[in-house]
UniProtKB/TrEMBL annotation:
Keywords: ATP-binding, Kinase, Nucleotide-binding, Serine/threonine-protein kinase, Transferase. Gene3D superfamilies: Phosphorylase Kinase, domain 1 (3.30.200.20), Transferase(Phosphotransferase) domain 1 (1.10.510.10). Residues 1-111 are annotated as: Disordered. This is Protein kinase domain-containing protein. Belongs to the protein kinase superfamily. CMGC Ser/Thr protein kinase family. Lammer subfamily. It comes from Caenorhabditis nigoni.
Amino acid sequence: MKRNQESPPKSSQKKCKDFDDTTQENEEPSSSAMADKEQSPSNEKEVRKEPQLEKTAMSKFPRSPTSITKSSASRILSNTQQENSKATRDMGIHKMSPPVDTDDPDWISSKVSTPPVLQVATASQSDIFKSPDLPPVLELQTGEKFIVNGKFGEGVFGIVYFVRGEDNNDYAAKVIKERKNVYLALPEEQAYKRIAANPHENLLLLHLKGLLMNPPPTCTPKVFITPACGPSLFDVLDKVDRDLHESQSATFSLTDIRKIGKQVADAMHHLETLEIYHLDLKMDNVVFIKDFAYETESGPNHTVIKMAGTDVKVIDYGNAKFHPQHGEKQVYESVQTLVYRAPEVLLGIPHSVKSDVWSMGCMLIEMYSGEEPFMFESGDSKLEEEQSQLKDIIYTLETTVPEKLLEQSKQGGQCRLDLTFLGPFDEFEAQGIRKLMRQQQDLPLFQLLDLMFTVDPSNRLSFFDVKDHAFFAET
């Protein structure tokens, strides 16, 4: 599974990789004092007996090669995960050789000469690392304490710790870093407030926000604490993919793509009703919330993952922005991780809800194929990589940019790309994204993707249309 190391921005629930700085280049500079002024410490709380906090059990787990740390890695399992892991160990990893069902829409080839191998395993939480610089405890100014059991990861704007609260539940604590242009986290905070007022079962909720008594070095006192969820879609795919031969790739079953995709579409439509753009929807930011066991069926070219549980949540509102209010004009900002970035944003046109729809389309095809559908070539500058990304979109989809969109791009004056490579494609010969389709039973998914990968956002599906598409009718 190819994976660009530059692309993913911060996350509050997963192993953090390098940030794409372009997703935050327009933030407003301010002092950390302004960021924290809204919350003042409570001095009225009575002294109470210190509760005994439990350290979370550790279990060894192979470290991902894409990890940001070179130290030995381990996985920390939450209470629920420990139960699931024990059940899987009791069951034992076993191999069976069921007969090949060539009519199974999840089976890869109708010409398989050997039966598939079915393996049972358990995915665990995102990579959690122990390091000597971990603070033992995060203590809020209210006196509440959280034992630090590990670190999910670190990015440009924050550090995410794996912690256990006084209630003996596991949480993710995102501590905001100090920077010259301070990341105030105000959009993220406002997004959590709107979601808390109108919650959705597939959207992550904030447990609490607060100020730390003694923040880690280079960090502000501000911290967001959310429930610690399970592994992300990327974590599971990457875990299986690491054990495969180079000629194979890991994919999710079509049934699981349908179930998970419907939940994501419902969650994103709910965000749309709350007038929130997510702008960082990707495999890393969709996480499982229970029952992380899965089976794998090995075919000649693909190994298909079938999850025991498919309940998920969309997480990480660190790049969230809000719909313009009456009379306001949507301004252009460079948003979204590059491999998930919508073409209108690459063309210097302001983002919209349809930009998130494009990102979801990229996520669905990545679950199906095991690879990002559009991948830029590494360059000496961000401009070169953006140029390469747009070219790959156009050549993969075998399409071009409509004149209307080119005119919008020209009028906006924000596009720095060389568009002379654009040319007409024979629409009768072009297969577009359907060239990745393995068998006819997968057609409903690709009919949906055709409509999500429309270059002109005005003709692209909305999340209301996506969630009601025929592909999701069987969920």
